[in-house]
């Protein structure tokens, strides 16, 4: 394999890795899971004054659980249907056989 072909192969591999790393499902799932844990903990530790403001509904707890469920959904979706690697283009110098 010639040097330019080796460099192109290496760049394609790095591109596929970057595409998987920056998949939007990973970013959304991670952020919603993190914020869901934080808001759920705020709901669990809510005092009576917080509950009175929300007319008796522990809104932080319910919102946090919803965010946590949505974040986990995105992460499970990413695990079950990972990003397909890009199909490498045929090099024009290769003989066809």
The total beta strand count reads: 0
- Return the structural class: mainly alpha
Mean of residue pLDDT values:
83
Portion in strands: under 5%
Please tag this protein with its features.
97 residues; mainly alpha; 70% helix; 0% strand; rod-shaped
Summarize the structure.
The protein is mostly helical and 97 residues long. The chain has helices spanning 3-21, 24-44, 48-53, 59-80.
Topology:
Blueprint: H1 3-21, H2 24-44, H3 48-53, H4 59-80
Helix pairs in contact: 2-4
Characterise this structure.
- The chain has 97 residues and is mainly α.
- The protein is built from four helices and no strands.
- The chain has helices at residues 3-21, 24-44, 48-53, 59-80.
- The longest helix is centred in the C-terminal third of the chain and has 22 residues, at 59-80.
- The radius of gyration is 23 Å and the shape is rod-shaped.
């Amino acid at each position: 394999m010639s040097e330019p072909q080796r460099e192109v192969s290496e760049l394609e591999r790095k591109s596929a890795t970057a595409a998987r790393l920056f998949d939007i499902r990973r970013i959304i799932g991670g952020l919603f899971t993190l914020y869901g844990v934080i808001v759920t903990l705020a709901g669990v530790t809510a005092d009576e004054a917080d509950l009175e403001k929300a007319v008796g509904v522990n809104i932080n707890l319910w919102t946090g659980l919803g965010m946590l469920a949505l974040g986990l959904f995105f992460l499970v979706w990413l695990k079950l249907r990972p990003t397909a690697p890009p199909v490498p283009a045929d090099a024009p110098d290769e003989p066809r056989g």
